[in-house]
Amino acid sequence: VIAVERCEPSETSKYGIVGRGAEIGTGFEVTAMVEKPAPANAPSNFYINGRYVLQPEIFALLGNQQRGAGNEIQLTDAMVRLAQSQSFYAQPFNGRMFDCGSKEGFIEATIAFALARDDMKGPVFEMLQQFVRTHERREEAA
Predict the structure, then answer these.
(1) CA dihedral 65, 68, 101, 88 (to 10 degrees)
(2) Residue 119 belongs to what domain range?
(3) 53 and 111 both lie in a single domain
(4) What pTM did the predictor assign?
């Protein structure tokens, strides 16, 4: 089972994308998996968001995996190989995800986490307000 989310069609080159097959409950059968396809080559705009329930056979495949997109060993490529012998299903994710693979996403996740904690939200909110005020003063002075 692979957790998926929708992305803008123009952003498919950032993610592993799945093809959408028959609906099964609240999810669907995965018909294809493509790592970071160009928008014109993407089988859908559902991206793999990094949450999986995988069979143990995946580890042997990863151990022999050639480097793929970005010159990295891609889990999606190993899952494509595993899909030759077993089915994969996608479940749309219901929640909030952050792209911690980017600096901005990591900062956003950290701030959201801090603001969700009762013991941190007050001090963190004040700190952010101070950063904004300082930034605005510098912009006005420039």
Answers:
(1) -60
(2) 103-141
(3) no
(4) 0.67
